[in-house]
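Got a spare moment? Tell me how you read both lines of this record:
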Amino acid sequence: MFTRVLTVNGVATNQMDDFMITGAIVKDDHLVATAIVDAQRTPSVIVAGGIFLTRSFTRLPDTDSQQ
């Protein structure tokens, strides 16, 4: 669960998101998340219409120069 503080026009509100790891790799005998999706628990106070937001995040692979 992520907890965020959002501001709109100077008004602050707390938002909570649930997330799920949907992809991972093994690196040095540890799992490293490479893809995450999340969904907002409550309707958006920023986007009109009270919609629920979902997002997806994907980790980009390391470049050869960093290895």
Observations:
- Residues 14 and 47 are 15 Å apart (CA to CA).
